[in-house]
Recover the amino acids of this structure.
C-alpha cells in the first residue's frame, strides 16, 4: 500500500458521547485537522449539563452551574459569556444542617476516605459567597450547542460495540443498536460516557481501559422538578442540604433568562438515590417533596422526577483521561477528572491534546492493520 495515500485517513475519530467531555475532545481534534464523528444515544447534546421542559418552565435538572479555576477553562467560559451562551448566576445561598461525620459506604472506602479528607472543608461548609457560579443561557445546554457547531453529530444513536473489520483500513468499526454497523470506520475511538457503559464498550478490545472503568463505582441521583403558581416563601435561592435525603435545592427561576414562573429543582444524595434506584418516578418525587416541605418549602402545583442512573463517581478519579496507545482507544469524562463541568471539559481537551502529540511522534500507520 502507498504509505502516503492513507495518511489523512489516520485522522478519523469516532467519539461516543456528546456531553461536555466528548464535545471538548471533538472540537479540539477537529481544529487540529482530524475528521471527527460524534455519536450519542440521547435526543439532545450536553449529557448531564441538561435542561428539561414542561408546559410551564424549563429546568436545569442535571448540572446546576459551573465554576472556573483552570486557565484554559476560564478562557473557554469567557468565550461562552462573550457570545451570550453563559452568564454569571449570583444566588442567595444557604447551608442547611450539619453533615456530621462522613462515612465510606462502598468497597472503595480507603480512596473515598482520602478524598473526603482532602475536601472536608467544602463538604461541611460550602463556600457560598466567594465562588463565581455560571450557567448556560437561556438554558444549560446552550454552551454545548455552541461547541457542536461544525461537528458531525449523530443523536439517537446507541453505540453498542467497537470491533475490528478484518483486512480493513481504518481499523475500528462501530455498531449501533438502532442502525447496525455505522458507515465508515475509524482509526481512533473515544468513549465519553459513564464508566459502566465504557466497560461494556471496551471489554473485548481494550483490557487496559476496561480495568480502569470497571474499578469505578458510579452512583445514581434522583432529580425532582417543581412548578408553583406563586412564589414560595424561602429566603434563599439555593441551598446545600447536609441532612436527610436531599443534598441540594435551587430556585431554577432565579437563574438568568429562565422566565417568570416559580420553579425549583431538588437533588437527592447519591446514597439515598442508590437505595431507591428501583423506585418509580412518582414514588421518588413524593418522598423528596416531603423532605422539601420539611425544609420550609410549599406543596408544588406540578412536579416530575428524573433518575440520572450514572450521575457521579464516588470519588471521581484524578487521572484526567485514559489512553490505550497500543490500540488508539481512549476515555474522557468528568469521572476521570474530579467531576464537575470543568473537569469534563478538561478531560476531553487533554485527551485530544495527547492524541495530537502522540500520533505526531510516531508512524501514523502503526497498529492500524489487522489480519
Amino acid at each position: 500500500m502507498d504509505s502516503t495515500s492513507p495518511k489523512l485517513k489516520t485522522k478519523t475519530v469516532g467519539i461516543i458521547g456528546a456531553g461536555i467531555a466528548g464535545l471538548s475532545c471533538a472540537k479540539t481534534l477537529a481544529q487540529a485537522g482530524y475528521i471527527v464523528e460524534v455519536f450519542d444515544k440521547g435526543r439532545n447534546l450536553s449529557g448531564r449539563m441538561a435542561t428539561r421542559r414542561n408546559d410551564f418552565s424549563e429546568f436545569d435538572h442535571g448540572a446546576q452551574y459551573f465554576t472556573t479555576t483552570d486557565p484554559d477553562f476560564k478562557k473557554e467560559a469567557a468565550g461562552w459569556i462573550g457570545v451570550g451562551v453563559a452568564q454569571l448566576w449570583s444566588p442567595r445561598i444557604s447551608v442547611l444542617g450539619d453533615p456530621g461525620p462522613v462515612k465510606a459506604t462502598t468497597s472503595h472506602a480507603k480512596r473515598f476516605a482520602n478524598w473526603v479528607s482532602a475536601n472536608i472543608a467544602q463538604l461541611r461548609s460550602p463556600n457560598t459567597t466567594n465562588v463565581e457560579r455560571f450557567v448556560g443561557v437561556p438554558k444549560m445546554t446552550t454552551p454545548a450547542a455552541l461547541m457542536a457547531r461544525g461537528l458531525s453529530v449523530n443523536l439517537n444513536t446507541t453505540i453498542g460495540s467497537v470491533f475490528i473489520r478484518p483486512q480493513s483500513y481504518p481499523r475500528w468499526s462501530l455498531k449501533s443498536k438502532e442502525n447496525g454497523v455505522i458507515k465508515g470506520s475509524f482509526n481512533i475511538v473515544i468513549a465519553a460516557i459513564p464508566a459502566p457503559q465504557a466497560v461494556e464498550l471496551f471489554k473485548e478490545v481494550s483490557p487496559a481501559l476496561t480495568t480502569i472503568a470497571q474499578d469505578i463505582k458510579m452512583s445514581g441521583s434522583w432529580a425532582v422538578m417543581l412548578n408553583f403558581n406563586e412564589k414560595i416563601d424561602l429566603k434563599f435561592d439555593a441551598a446545600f442540604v447536609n441532612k436527610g435525603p436531599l443534598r441540594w435545592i435551587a430556585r431554577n427561576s432565579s437563574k438568568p433568562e429562565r422566565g417568570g414562573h416559580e420553579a425549583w429543582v431538588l437533588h437527592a444524595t447519591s446514597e439515598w438515590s442508590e437505595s431507591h434506584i428501583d423506585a418509580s418516578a412518582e414514588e421518588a418525587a413524593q418522598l423528596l417533596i416531603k423532605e422539601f416541605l420539611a425544609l420550609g418549602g410549599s406543596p408544588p402545583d406540578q412536579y416530575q422526577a428524573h433518575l440520572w442512573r450514572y450521575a457521579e463517581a464516588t470519588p471521581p478519579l484524578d487521572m484526567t483521561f485514559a489512553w490505550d496507545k497500543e490500540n488508539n482507544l481512549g476515555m474522557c469524562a468528568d469521572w476521570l477528572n474530579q467531576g464537575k463541568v470543568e473537569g469534563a471539559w478538561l478531560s476531553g481537551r487533554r485527551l485530544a491534546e495527547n492524541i495530537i502529540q502522540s500520533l505526531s511522534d510516531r508512524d501514523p500507520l502503526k497498529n492500524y492493520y489487522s489480519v
The CA atoms of residues 196 and 203 lie 11 Å apart. The chain has nine helices and 19 strands. The two ends are 15 Å apart (CA to CA).
